[in-house]
Amino acid sequence: MIYLKTEEEIELLRDNNLLVSQTLAEVGRHIKPGVTTKQLDRIIEDFIRSHGATPAFLGYQGYPASACISVNEQVVHGIPSDNIVIKEGDIVSVDVGTFMKGFVGDSAYTFAVGEVAEDVRQLLEVTKEALYRGTAQAKAGNRVGDISAAVQDYAERFGYGVVRELEGHGLGRKMHEEPGVPNYGARGRGPLLKEGMVICIEPMITMGNRAVVFERDGWTVRTRDRKPAAHFEFAVAIRKNGPDVLTDFNIIENSLG
Ligand code: MF3
Ligand code: CO
To answer: Residues 23-46, buried b or exposed e (16+ Cβ, 10 A)?
Structure first.
């Protein structure tokens, strides 16, 4: 069942996703060589709680932290740890969820730590652009497959892998609602997009092969070939006149300077 949101509900979702964006901006300022992903998780949890929300991931299906922090070959769902120390040249994907006012916020951004290799910098740019191209298809009358195909076509143009084991999703009172939003697929296929739907689009793109391994910690997903992967996620409301992006990457990028 796909829940269509009212104007008021979309605004509550916007409040949540704005807080997620502000949280990502705050943590981005602390992503420096020497910091542990556990320390970053603590910053995220404190920031969310001090703004009157709770971390939506904490306890979700038993998840043990407030954010997913995935470094280099980790694709998504990296568990923050005292043993993972950020170093120059890393890429760090931070996925954050909030819960307040009865609704959920959910967005992700991959940060570069200092100078990263040129091919890795391109991976980040292409993944973000794939997200933008998918988002441009998120309008009433299109289908989920139009989003999926736009993401896949753009990423594969560069020889990158599109991870298939995980996908985007509807967003509302629950973090994962229908429909699923795959990052690969065919134009014109899949569920019809209607005004009032709110979805998360979240390409997970690999520099090498698209195959992933699910680690034995029960959460972390990494590339099989251990090449780097990037992950960017937007929450988007489907409106008559096109996509209404509820996440704000400008807040993050302006704070990085
Ligand atoms: N943000 C992820 C998603 O987009 C969910 C995180 S899994 C959790 O689906 F367990 F950490 F919550
Ligand atoms: Co999501």
So the answer is: bbbbbbeebeeebbbbbbbbbbbe
